[in-house]
Write a structure and sequence with these properties.
The protein is of the alpha+beta class. 57% of the residues lie in helices and 17% in strands. The strands form five sheets. Strands 14, 15, 16, 17, 18, 19, 20 and 21 form an eight-stranded mixed β-sheet that branches. Strands 10-9-13-12-11 form a five-stranded antiparallel β-sheet, with helices on both faces. Helix 15 runs antiparallel to helix 16, helix 15 runs parallel beside helix 22 and helix 25 runs antiparallel to helix 26.
Length: 818
Amino acid sequence: MTFPVSRRMMPSMVLFWTLLVACGVLTVACGALAVGELGQPWGGFSLNVYGTVGSGGATGLLYFDAIRAVNGTPVQSAHHFRTLLRRASPGELLTYEVRRGQQQFTATLPVQTITWRCLTSEFGIPLLTALGQLCMGAIVFLLRPTTRRSRVFLGFCLAWFGLFITAFDFSSTYVFPQVFLFCWFMTSALFLHLALVFPEERRILGRHPAVQGLLYLPSLMLWGLDELSFHHMLAPWLGKTLVQVHAIYWGATLLVLLVILTHTAWRATSPVAQCRAKTVLLGFAAGFLVPVGGQIAAMVFRLTLPLVWVWPLTLLLPLSLAYAMLRYNLFDVGVIVRRTLTYGVLTSMVIAVYVVVVWLSNKLLRDVVVAQSPSVPLLFSLVVLFGLNPLRERFQQGLDRLFFRTRYDYRHTIEALSRDLTTVLDLDEIVGRIVHTVMSALGVSRVALYLENGRGTYEPLAVVGEAAERLASLRPHRDNPVVALVARQRDGVSRYDLEADPGLVQIAPQAPMAFEHLGVSLAFPLMFKEDVMGLLALGSKQSGAIFTEGDLDLLRTLTNQSAIALANARAYRALEDANAALRAALYKVEVLEQIKTHLGKFVPASVRQLVERDPTAPALEKREEDVTVVFLDIAGYTSLSETLAQAQVNYIVERYFSSFLDDIYANRGDINETAGDGLMILFQGDDACAHACAAVRTALAIRAKTQQINAELAGTYAPVTVNMGINSGTAAVGSTRFESTTGTRWTFTASGPVTNLAARLSAAATGGTIYVGPETARRLREAFCLRDVGRRAFKNVREPVVVYEVLAHRAMPELVQA
């Protein structure tokens, strides 16, 4: 068993080992002094350093009887009395002048010899009691060196050790009387100090730490006055009075301790705290009430009592503490004591069995000395090797059932859960297995597992046991006192930890109420990458037992492994959700692509380009641009629609207009608007002359296509004539929005005088002619053959304009002649 020592604990540990070495030196010195008294003359009664009787034994002398003279020789001090006694021979009768209060009398007593029997009762029994107190204090301090309880309990044990170890010297050799007196006066203060920290610290210490120092003031004052009286600086009678006053105060402090322990036993909030307090109360009451009460009665009422045989009862306190450690995990050392007890008993059993086997073999096989045979140790070692582990497991199970009421196999539980977690990726299934494993292994009333949802709130994923609906309705936040406390401690925290350690309450004052609100007894963090990803909340054990260190070890291992599995499962679920979202997004993209394909048929190419260039904020607002606008119209469309069926009309329009598309797109034109019998086509570009020429080329190609289709449909349908008007210039190109109470309608077009003149030219054209405005004619230069048809006035055009008819491309003069 090792005890890690941090830099902060180093001064305490140095002081502890220094005190322990001093106790060892004191034990050796007192032992040597006691052994040196063997065979020495003894008066049959003990005389303390004050020169008064401490224990009269069978001599009839009482407490505080003062020996004034021996055989007429005045006794000046206790040391002088010892010198006079050493000069006497065993069996010699000595006459003592005794003063008892206001009376004086003589007593004739034979000189006795200190024997081993006498030394055993006067020094041996106190020695064993002292060592028992010292060992218990040292063990408790080593196990929990940082807690106030452990330090105070160590001081308590050291005081009683000093009291017992120097008790014989105080009434015989007089080497360490000051140690005895100091320890005795300090025991009353330590009774009070223990009442405030044991088995749980009282809250007053957290609010007023200076109270601890005040507890020692009465004892220190009484000790200081007694020292002055001892050194004859005060009246001699005052020393006796101070001793009696302290004896009464001593008993009062013990009663205060017992009352506070009783209050804790009956008013503690948790059953475990009540059981701990009752066990410790029993230890103090049974161990100290009779010895201390008897000693006080002997000192106050001057009685002769066999107290040397009563003081060993104080060892009942270490025994009660040992039981509390085993049964209720007092000082949280249950696992260490369990293992020590298990292996200690097994070792004793193995040694006993070996001795019995050798003894029986020697008895049965008289001619063979079995113990000297080299094969016997080897065979016995093999038996121990194969039989010790099963025996240890059975013994440990029996010990657990007796003290802890636990039956689970730690290793089997972890292996089973680990095996399950490595084969499962479903988050809900993993959570379910964790809570059911904890429920069945620890036998708790309820278990809830919460996971952080990414927004600082812990959502319940699985709740089993009592009050499951209530636990499932809770959503503790990251700033919840219980969550914050376990995150700070990075370990499990129970309600009893808050009762036992006021320091935790100072860190999180609202934690007790938060535990009460949650309705759980133990909260354990699920740590992953330094973060509390979840919380495992447990109710109390159904057996009423406390969570032992073994339980906490199991939960630590379980939560560490579970945190990794839960993180993987949550990542897997997030990946599945992301895949599902991606599949949904891909499906939406496919649908949008289909919609785009269908809508693209109804949207001008220029608009599609603007939207594709910047889908989030397309530049659709009106802006001034240089364009060439082409209007074309099918002559006689009204008569066609009246004489032909609608399906035939649609066929004719689609047949002609479809044939026009290739030439329109080849010359970078964009169909901006359509009507039943006409089209509006825009041509744009950086070169004004280029897009004007492209528009005229398109118009000539459309006229040629019209003539070709007329020839193909001859005899089936009447020929179609397409008239066109073209104009160039600056127009307002962009979106136009129409809003009403029923909705909003958007159009994208070119508007202004340029567009208006192109439409008027198309309406004025007849017989399949192509009219262009003066600006377009100017831009065409010598690329096309044009004919001036004169000035014409048009509706909504301010002045008449010169109109030109496009005859043909300069490279095709035959068309002009035709």
